[in-house]
């Protein structure tokens, strides 16, 4: 097994530490209130929307190499801020995701939610994979 | 070491599989175009903004138990959609984050970025921890 | 000319006054910092995204009466917050829009921007009607 | 009274026409599905968040001239897309805002909503000026 490359990150726990070190090395902690971090995360989520806004659904499956790399960087930005926010709030990302998937499974049982049954379950105009 | 609880998720790789299974069991794949997924992710990021919008920075550090649980669920929603999007686009979340942190380290070297040096580095009005 | 209905609003100037009165009557001014208002506006913009996230482009043109009313209310929310924010920052909405359209006209001259020329003008992966 | 400057816009009705002409002159109508427009609007709302994300509430009231101009342009972008979206959906912006303020007045009666009574009215963790 090759040595881990200098900047390789092998788990969310490692990512949490690296993001924490990054901010602390630059004395950026005072910027990183939960309020500011949720704003920054929304900004990055919107930067992820932007490459897709004029694409059709089909085109959105066929990004060019340049588009794909731009999207990859925005996905990374979202994960970095999510990790930092979760760290400050003492939230374990995988535990939270596991619990939410369990909630979603009860809200959208397979037999009721199959196919386009989203419309059956949700108020008209609203259908959401994971919404409470 | 205790047995893993039925819905426990121990890594991003496991999360990716669970989210994929969740969608496939319900035949929701046709909803999950990258275009739709980035929209859903932005919706969840904004649901994460909402509890904080009228709070002060200090209040944002002192969420009640109910606020904290609500935020924990929205953080989970963002991670679930991010995982699904990355899965469809063939993007490894930790590799992408590692590469982006390396880019950020070059853009914001510790000696230049320390303290409030964000204002020194960025165009007036814009300062961002991870933006290109 | 019919009498104006009690809550009718005939111009952006009237809307600005009504929104200001609404906030002041409830002593909500301390919540309405520009920072908080841009957050609230983003939350509403995402609530406008939500009804569309699983719809196809075609379906997005054919909203049901219920969907249309929900979208109409979210559009109103965005305008209300935009008006309040502009009021606090001393920005005239129509002047700002006029100036921005003039900038856009120079950035996207008709001869160059016609049809799918957006891709020609913008960096790969990014095309935007109004972005700087 | 001075002649209207060539690009001056005196009402939302005029803005609606100008935005429609701008898009039609460039044959951009096929990009302007409601689905795409709500995405573009969310992108612009997030560009409005960005200048504020690391500012304190106090700093957010004291933008530099450069910051103020950047914010003014983003506010314009949001209004332009909102106008285009409303035009396509046959929604009158001022009527929609008037109706929504009436709904809000019933939801947040002055006697109950005064001061910090937002916390009294809304579920813990959520307080919103205009949300249903």
List the helices and strands and how they pair.
Four copies of one chain form a homotetramer.
Chain A: H1 12-25, H2 34-49, H3 57-60, H4 65-89, H5 93-107, H6 110-113, H7 118-121
Helix pairs in contact in A: 1-4, 2-4
What is the arithmetic mean of pLDDT of chain A? 88
* Helix percentage of chain A: 55-70%
SS field, number of helical segments of chain A:
7
What about the largest sheet of chain A?
Answer: none
Coarse morphology of chain A: globular
Helix/strand/pairing category of chain A: mainly alpha
Low-confidence stretches of chain A: 119-132
Short descriptors:
homotetramer, 132 residues, mainly alpha, 62% helix
Structure commentary:
4 copies of one chain form a homotetramer. Chain A has 132 residues and is an all-alpha fold. Chain A has helices at residues 12-25, 34-49, 57-60, 65-89, 93-107, 110-113, 118-121. The longest helix of chain A is centred in the middle third of the chain and has 25 residues, at 65-89. Chain A is globular and about 50 Å long. Mean pLDDT of chain A is 88; it is low at 119-132.
Brief characterization of the structure:
The first copy, chain A, has helices at residues 12-25, 34-49, 57-60, 65-89, 93-107, 110-113, 118-121. Chain A has 132 residues and is mainly alpha-helical.
């Amino acid at each position: 097994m090759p040595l881990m490359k200098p900047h390789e990150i092998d788990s969310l726990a490692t990512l949490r530490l690296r993001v924490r070190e990054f901010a602390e090395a630059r004395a950026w902690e005072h910027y990183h209130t939960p309020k500011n971090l949720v704003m920054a995360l929304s900004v990055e989520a919107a930067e992820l929307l932007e490459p897709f806004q004029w694409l059709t659904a089909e085109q959105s499956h066929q990004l060019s190499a340049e588009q794909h790399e731009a999207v990859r960087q925005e996905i990374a930005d979202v994960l970095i801020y999510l990790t930092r926010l979760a760290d400050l709030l003492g939230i374990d990302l995988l535990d939270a995701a596991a619990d939410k998937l369990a909630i979603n499974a009860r809200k959208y049982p397979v037999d009721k939610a199959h196919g386009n049954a989203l419309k059956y379950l949700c108020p008209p105009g609203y259908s959401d994979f994971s919404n409470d």
